[in-house]
Specification:
This protein is an alpha/beta fold and 310 residues long. It has 12 helices and 12 strands.
């Protein structure tokens, strides 16, 4: 695939158009899997978010579908859609040119110039960026991380609220890919999914609290088994197995686990930590499992969106 970085056409749209052509001509048949995101980014010389946005555009048009963990699968070009859309777009543009000339005295060149200025103004607008997560605590923390790195108005949006996030760009995490996709189906192309990981500093805090040199048992407290399993797997990557044994306790009221006497450290997932009171957070057995954006993703999204650095 040949991409032109100097073209005014965004790279993600160039990728989407190239894939759309291959699908329309049969080079990519229905049922075929598109390259995984990281493989495609390396192959085409772009960042991960550019590929993700291209795939999202095709998915929004019903040409592909993304089914984690399998990948993005080709559905094909819906019959009649391309021609119907082309005719409708042509009719709309002819009407715009006619109205510009008859009502406002604008020539085609002046209209194109005016639209160019309008587009540039839109590109640099200060539209708030909605940062979506499952809880207000986690969404607020991630929004602060985004705003600390880039000059953006990052606002938290919790999935505990009904409906879709307010208008504007959306940043979400892969933890809640399906939930966000369902709520933002009509604007999926404007959603950026980013990877997050537990703060590595947790290992140091737990290490300082270890009793002697023996292996420490730590308990992850969460409300849902699926979420607890995912977080435990993430923690295993930052907590050395030679020093810690990770156990999981699922409870509808995880905060009450602090009422039990004795025992080792209790690790609270982000949303559960947000429910703890000040005195509970000060308990020496209580530790927050804080998640951070992957540094590479945090850098890439700013470059893609054209944000100014802090």
């Amino acid at each position: 695939m040949k991409l032109d970085p100097t073209s005014p056409v965004p790279l993600y749209h160039q990728i989407a158009e190239a894939l759309r052509y291959r699908i329309a001509t049969g080079s990519l048949a229905a049922g075929a899997l598109l390259p995984p995101l990281r493989e495609a980014a390396t192959r085409w010389g772009v960042n991960l978010h550019t590929v993700r946005r291209a795939y999202a555009e095709l998915s929004e048009q019903g040409i592909t579908e993304t089914c984690p963990p399998v990948g993005t699968r080709v559905l094909g070009i819906p019959r009649g859609r391309a021609a119907a859309r082309s005719d409708a777009e042509r009719e709309f543009l002819v009407g715009v040119v006619r109205e510009a000339r008859e009502r406002h005295g604008l020539s085609l060149d002046r209209l194109v110039s005016a639209l160019g200025h309008l587009g540039a103004a839109h590109e640099v607008s200060d539209a708030p960026v909605q940062v979506v997560e499952c809880s207000e605590t986690q969404a607020t923390d991630l929004a602060r991380q985004l705003a600390a790195r880039w000059r953006v108005d990052a606002r938290p949006f919790s999935l505990e609220q009904p409906g879709a996030p307010p208008p504007g760009p959306v940043v979400a995490t892969y933890f809640h890919y399906n939930d966000v996709r369902a709520r933002c189906r009509a604007r999926l192309a404007s959603v950026r999914f980013m990877a997050i990981r537990p703060d590595p500093a947790l290992a140091g805090r737990l290490g300082a609290a270890r009793r002697g040199k023996r292996r420490e048992r730590v308990t992850l407290c969460e409300r849902e088994p699926g979420m607890a399993s995912n977080i435990a797997a993430d923690l295993a990557e930052i907590l050395p197995a030679a020093q810690f044994t990770i156990e999981v306790e699922v409870s509808r009221t995880p905060a009450k686990l602090l009422d039990r006497g004795g025992g080792g450290p209790l690790l609270f997932s982000p949303r559960v930590w947000g429910e703890l009171g000040p005195s509970q957070r000060q308990d020496p057995r209580a530790f927050e499992v804080r998640y951070l954006f992957e540094p590479a993703d945090l850098e890439a999204i700013g470059a893609e969106m054209g944000w100014s650095s802090r």
